[in-house]
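USER:
Make up one protein:

ASSISTANT:
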Amino acid sequence: MTSTEIPAPRHRWLRAVGYGLLAEVATIITIILVVMAYKYVFARGLSDPEYEAFGQRAGGYVGLVGGAIYTYIFARRLMPRLSSRFSEHGTVVALSAIALSIAGSIAGHQGVPLAYIAASILKIVAGATAGFVYSRSVAVNRMA
């Protein structure tokens, strides 16, 4: 198979799952980088409880907004590799990111905070929107 051929349907769905996992890993890395920058660059010399409090706040904000942004970005990167069902694939990207997020929360917090519901909804909207926007551009290009 050449790089321009569309893979078998099974591989497209697996690819969507992989992109979702990458989106969540990118979100986690961004949270870590924000917290480390705060601790070692912007607010040196604070107490451990102050850093912990900042980490919780930053994780909440970056996880909410960054998770949706990364889900959109990675779902959008998947779209050129597809021939149909763009929004469905974008939703699978989002659901994969959500699954990793919830698994990590259960492992780390022994539960799932209420804010994860909002973050999950945003991820689903972002993934489906990436597919919808791409499908519209494909439709416009086919008409031209």
